[in-house]
UniProtKB/TrEMBL annotation:
GO terms for biological process: phosphorelay signal transduction system; regulation of DNA-templated transcription. Keywords: DNA-binding, Phosphoprotein, Transcription, Transcription regulation. One of its GO terms (molecular function) is DNA binding. Residues 154-219 form the HTH luxR-type domain. The modification 4-aspartylphosphate is found at residue 60. InterPro entries: CheY-like_superfamily (IPR011006), NreC/VraR/RcsB-like_REC (IPR058245), Sig_transdc_resp-reg_C-effctor (IPR016032), Sig_transdc_resp-reg_receiver (IPR001789), Tscrpt_reg_LuxR_C (IPR000792), WalR-like (IPR039420). This is DNA-binding response regulator. Gene3D superfamilies: 3.40.50.2300.
């Protein structure tokens, strides 16, 4: 990345100053990433991210005054389409209920605090460009556990999607990458990327992770099935 416009603006939200300091050192070492603010509670995180027009917020779950999950809901509810903020939930707790609630709140990913510095840097870049941070295996496992539409329930197909876009959405929901979708549908990866972008725009979804949530909630795919 080069130029001020390409720099990713990051806000750190954690009630432990030493944790924030460590993350700041790691992120500041990454090219094209700038930590523009730090918050020690959820209220301050929402305020800073909104005022500073953060691209990505690293959000702790357990914070005073307002926890990270509720802060995520409020922040993303106020985030405008001209500058959508992405949230990565950071926690020491590897709990599926936190993960699913974070996705429902609008978070773009979930990362344990013991992640490597390289993984942390790459995670910020991944969510900033609108890709899914969760691995396909984790995404399917968690959503399949908490989202249980009946197989007998008719599929609620979005009326705005073309046949091809619906096929792309269905494959996205299985955790397939652009390359895998391209191979399955005999398309070029650039074409698939365009279809993915259109699906997200038409359904008003923040990223691929939320396309998976949407597909499960609308019966397009079913827990344990394709």
């Amino acid at each position: 990345m080069t130029g001020a416009e390409a720099t990713l603006r990051v806000v750190l939200a954690d009630d432990q100053a030493l944790v924030r300091a460590g993350f700041r050192v790691i992120l500041s070492s990454g090219e094209g990433i700038e930590v523009v603010g730090e918050a020690d509670d959820g209220w301050e995180a929402v305020d800073l991210a909104t005022r500073l027009r953060a691209d990505v917020v690293l959000m702790d779950v357990q914070m005073p005054r307002l926890d990270g999950l509720e802060a995520t809901r409020r922040l993303l509810g106020a985030s405008g389409p001209d500058h959508p903020t992405k949230v990565i939930i950071l926690t020491t707790f590897d709990r599926e209920d936190y993960l699913f609630e974070a996705l429902q709140a609008g978070a773009s990913g979930f990362l344990l605090k013991n992640a490597s510095p390289e993984h942390l840097l790459e995670s910020v870049r991944i969510v900033a460009r609108g890709d899914a941070l969760l691995s396909p295996e984790v995404t399917r496992r968690v959503i399949a556990r908490f989202s249980t539409p009946s197989r007998a329930t008719p599929v609620r197909r979005p009326a705005d999607l073309t046949d091809r876009e619906f096929e792309v959405l269905s494959l996205l929901a299985t955790g397939a990458s652009n390359a895998e979708i391209a191979q399955e549908l005999f398309l070029g990866e650039t074409t698939v990327k365009t279809h993915v972008s259109r699906v997200l725009t038409k359904l008003n979804l923040r990223d691929r992770t939320h396309a998976v949530v949407f597909a499960y909630e609308n019966g397009i795919v079913t827990p344990g099935g394709a």
